[in-house]
Amino acid sequence: MTWRSTPETSDKILGSLPYLLPLFRAVLVGGAIFKLIANFPVLAPIGEVLLLLITPVMFVYGLLPFGLGDIAVFFAIFFLVVRNPNISHFIRFNALQAILIGFIISIGSLLLSVVSLPGLELVTDTFYNMLLFGGVAAVG
C-alpha cells in the first residue's frame, strides 16, 4: 500500500477509526463474554475497555430511530470515504476492509442464530465468543 504514497500519522489515525464499526458488531454478537466476565471479576478491565471503545459508535447508531443508524453509517462511509478519490488510498482501503469485516461478523451471527438449537447454549455461546475474538483479532 505504500507504493501510492507514504501514510502519515494523521492517515493512520483516520484509517483506524472505521475499525470501531466491526468492533461494535463483534461486541454485540459476542455478548456471551460478558457472562464470563460476570463470573470472573479479574476479566472486568477487558469488558470495560471494550465498552469504552464502542461507546462513540453506540451514540452514532442511536441517533437514528428504527435501527437506521447502521445503514446510514455504512452508506456514509462507503460513499463519502471509500468512493472518494480525494481521500488517501490508505484511509479508503482501511474503511472498505472494516466494512467487509463487519459483513463477515454479521453473516456469522445470522448463521449462528439460524442454526442454534435449544439446549446447546454452551456450544452457541462458544461460537459467538469465537466471532467476538475473531473480530477483535481482525480489528486489532
TrEMBL record:
GO CC terms in record:
membrane
Q: Name one Pfam family in it.
A: TIC20
Bilayer topology term? Multi-pass membrane protein
Report the transmembrane regions from the record: 20-38, 58-82, 94-117
Q: Does the keyword Transmembrane apply?
A: yes
Q: Which InterPro entries match?
A: Tic20
Q: Which UniProt keywords apply?
A: Membrane, Transmembrane, Transmembrane helix
Where, per UniProt, does this protein localize?
Membrane
Keyword Disulfide bond (UniProt) = no
Highest taxon listed in the record's lineage? Bacteria
| Family membership noted in the UniProt record | Belongs to the Tic20 family.
Would you tell me the protein name for this molecule?
Uncharacterized protein
Give the organism the record lists: Leptolyngbya cf. ectocarpi LEGE 11479
